[in-house]
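Marked as duplicate of an earlier ticket. Keeping the data here for the record.
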Amino acid sequence: MQDYKKIFVKVPQPYLDLINQVFEIEKKALQLKEDNSIQRNVNKLKDLIENELFKGNEGAGLTYHNPLGEKYSQSRTDCEASIAGTETDNLEIVEVIKPIVFYNYIDDNKAIKTIAQKAVIVAEARN
C-alpha cells in the first residue's frame, strides 16, 4: 500500500500560467489536420518544464495531465467541474479548460506527487 502525505505546495503563478499556455497550444495543435512540427515544439516545452525548470533541486519538477475522457464524480479532488445537462450519474469529462498540474519531488527517498493546480473541466453524462 502506498503512503499518502497531505501537503500543500504553492507553485509560483507564472509557472502555472506557462503550463496552461503550453496545454492550450497542445490542444490547438491536435486539431490541425495538416502534418506539422508544432507538436514537436510542444514536446520540447513540456520537457523543459518537467526536467529543466527545477534543475538543481534533485527530483523536483512539474508535470501536467489532461483528464479528457475520464470518468468524473463529485468525490474527485483533482478537478473543479461544471456539469453540462441535468444528469449527475455516469459523468465523463468532455472538455478540459486547464489541466491537472502536479509538483513532483523526493522525500525520504520516495517519489512524491502532489497537486499544484486542479483541472478545470466540463463533465457530461455518458450515453
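See parent ticket for discussion. The chain has a mean pLDDT of 87.
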